[in-house]
Amino acid sequence: MKYLGLCPPPRRGFTLIEALAVVALLAVMTVMVAPTFVAWRVRDAVDARARALIESLAYARSEALRRGSRITVCRIDAARHCLAAGQPCGNGIVDWACGWGVFAERNGALSLLRAQPLLASVSIAGAQTNLTFTPPAGQLIGTFRSFDIAPRVTSKAVQGDKWRRCIRIAAGGRSRIVDGACGATS
Length: 186
Fold this sequence. Notes:
There is one protein chain. It contains one helix and nine strands, in the order αβββββββββ. The chain is of the alpha+beta class. It has one domain (16-179): 3-Layer(bab) Sandwich (minor pseudopilin epsh fold). The strands form two sheets. The chain has a five-stranded antiparallel sheet with strand order 3-2-1-5-6, with helices on one face. The longest helix is centred in the first third of the chain and has 52 residues, at 16-67.
């Protein structure tokens, strides 16, 4: 149909003002959502590290029962050797965030069964000494132990008990995760 000048032709697309308004709205939404996304990732890292530690402790206890020998869980360095109490790992971290290993005692020597790598973004405060599970019941040598797992970042968005996890280990060797801080002691 030929344009006769009676009706203006239909317009398609957006004006520059409309496009800028959408871009500005998206920018505001991104600024509002970004801290929530970062906090979610931090909480996920704390939860994952707590689950990894509790799985290692359960594995060590079950191996002590299965093998009938002592199984040790200790903080490890980059070469996967046990660190002495209070000794920092390569990047200066002194807590269990250095990573840990599960070792079986064989003829007086320790052989590595499993290892967890360093994760510097999460702090794991607790007993600085090795944890040893003994047969026949998989009991933990020493007293009641606990670990306080928290984000290492200092942002106000991730402070408080809702960002922390506590792992409590009974003398019988069984462990459990509790939400919040537990005041882990060495």
